[in-house]
Automatic annotation (TrEMBL):
Keywords: Disulfide bond, Hydrolase, Protease, Serine protease, Signal. The keyword Iron-sulfur does not apply. Residues 33-50 have a biased composition (Low complexity). InterPro entries: Peptidase_S1_PA, Peptidase_S1_PA_chymotrypsin, Peptidase_S1A, Trypsin_dom, TRYPSIN_HIS, TRYPSIN_SER. Residues 49-279 form the Peptidase S1 domain. Residues 1-34 form the signal peptide. It comes from the Bacteria. Transmembrane segments: none annotated. Residues 33-54 are annotated as: Disordered. This is S1 family serine peptidase. PROSITE patterns: TRYPSIN_DOM, TRYPSIN_HIS, TRYPSIN_SER. It comes from Streptomyces monticola. PANTHER family: ACROSIN-RELATED, HYALIN.
Length: 281
């Protein structure tokens, strides 16, 4: 299994790009509609995202869960940013339920809102440019300790350092088990040069340095996002100590493997396009 993406939409898109080499790869690794279950009965420092730990309620109030089995972030009260490979394409779409305001997906106080419309990144064809916006049927109320917006970086100045990631996805490569409780981890920036070496061009699935940003423990592995975390934000603090989105969980070779960092959509590259698309939604 080289590159693992989870939606059948993506599989179709990849096929459509004519990149024959990609078809040999495993593209769907868990049911998008599998109900999240709590596979984490043992509290404590057990490594889990992969190699992370449980997030506290209110710690990442911008995190949302999408019903097709992806993550996302609140860009505006009625707009969620996610990965293009998580959605079915641009147009009216009432099929997605967005859960906000809760780390525990079964929290009775969780806020659930339906989608209204989706916009996929211009030019997205199954590789890179992996971002999309979801317009919600109604705005999410901003409640202290529950919900907040996550601004996106508009400069490359924050494309370095150590990032935060969070999600309800697998805690282990291949587990196919979505989590009931949000998990978090810290992943260091991996340079374009090192990421290029990690993902050489051949046979066709590779890293696009201008459009993607890599993170993880390059040598040791052990910490990463994984299946079901896609679309969620990679973030860090800005100079004023405020959370800022720098990436979107996109893909990787397995999860948390040594020498195989996580690959994220480079938000700084698309900041203008994202803002423009959001204004038009
Ligand atoms: N494509 C995966 C998803 O749909 C995300 C994979 C992230 N992988 C990684 N090794 N960082 O959930």
């Amino acid at each position: 299994m080289l590159r693992t993406l989870r939606s059948s939409t993506t599989a179709r898109r990849l096929t459509a790009t004519g990149a024959a080499a990609l078809m040999a790869l495993s593209l769907s690794s868990f049911s998008a509609h599998a109900a999240p279950t709590d596979s984490d009965p043992t509290p404590g420092p057990t490594p889990r995202v992969v190699g992370g730990e449980k997030a506290k309620q209110g710690e990442f109030p911008f995190m949302v869960r999408l019903s097709m089995g992806c993550g996302g972030s609140l860009y505006a009260k009625d707009i969620v940013i996610t990965a293009a490979h998580c959605v079915g394409g641009s147009g009216p779409d009432k099929s997605i339920t967005v859960t906000a305001g809760a780390t525990d997906l079964k929290d009775p106080k969780a806020i659930k809102v339906k989608s209204k419309k989706v916009v996929v990144a211009p030019g997205y064809a199954g590789q890179s440019k992996d971002w999309a916006l979801i317009k919600l049927a109604k705005p999410v109320k901003l409640i202290k300790g529950r919900t907040a917006l996550l601004p996106i970086t508009t400069t490359k100045a924050y494309d370095k350092g150590t990032f935060g990631v969070a999600g309800w996805g697998d805690v282990k490569e291949g587990a196919g088990q979505q989590q009931r409780h949000l998990r978090k981890a810290k992943v260091p920036f991996v340079t374009d040069a090192a990421c290029k070496r990690a993902y050489p061009t051949s046979p066709g699935v590779h890293f696009f340095p201008k459009e993607e940003i890599c993170a993880g423990n390059l040598q040791a592995g052990g910490v990463d996002t994984c299946q079901g975390d896609s679309g969620g934000p990679m973030f860090r603090k800005d100079n004023k100590g405020k959370w800022l989105q720098v990436g979107i969980v996109s893909w990787g070779d397995g999860c948390a493997r040594p020498g195989k960092p996580g690959v994220y959509t480079e938000v700084s590259t698309f900041a203008k396009q994202i803002a423009k698309a959001a204004r038009a939604l």
